[in-house]
Amino acid sequence: MGKPRLGKGLQALITDMSTTGADEVQQIAVHLIVPNPYQPRRVFAEEELAELAASIRQHGLIQPVTVRPRSGRYELVVGERRLRAAKLAGLTEIPALVKEWSDQEAMEVALIENLQREDLNPMEEAAAFAQLQEHLGLTQEGLAERVGKSRPYVANTLRLLMLSPAIAELVSRGTISAGHARAILSAPVAKRDMLAQEMVAKGLTVREAERLAARAAESVSRETTKRPAKAKLPLAELREVERELRDALQTRVELKGSPERGTIVVTYHNSEELERLREWLLRAGG
Length: 286
Fold this sequence. Notes:
Helix content is 56%, strand content 13%.
């Protein structure tokens, strides 16, 4: 089966992914339809859902949702907003197009349908890009071609996943834009949350945010340059560190190199000892 691209349109994508067996629209009880695990949208505007529900009460659900059979139920693939609005409208059954799709096909249709709608917030779009890239094993260039975007656009969008949860939430809510977020990512990690708060408090434009982030980066660079070099560890102290590690790990430990730079070699003699060392190191690191 060929790989359809986003630019073909969702209907063409759904047609291309048809498999054996006749597809048909059925009336399905809403309680039998389970959520789509690949749904990238996490934010649904309550006002828009209420408006759609009012329209459904008056005219019914005109466009069917798309589902696939799953263990006696149906997994929603396309139509999350319609399903939610139908429930709000009090419908107990809705029309659904039933498709026999694999996990990968269902994931791809769900993600691309939402990307094509262009109403995902930037964080949802970034998560959708990442899911497609991971599941399809695509490079950024391949992903860009698949979703009909430029490679820089895809790369910049994926970078948003490096934001802290607090900043990502600001982007999801629309408190700051993706442009503000990219400016924040150019600043040192330790300064980012503070910069985001300042941008919100002052209502900075993206250009102002970029200048603020640049100043933060320069400030940290100057502090690093001025910071005195750490005192070198005398060789005698290095041997003492070696002894302390040996006592703690209860095995041979050897420090190779100089007091400034080197490697630590830990010796084990069987799988049980390796497991003991692994547990000790994990506890120490936790």
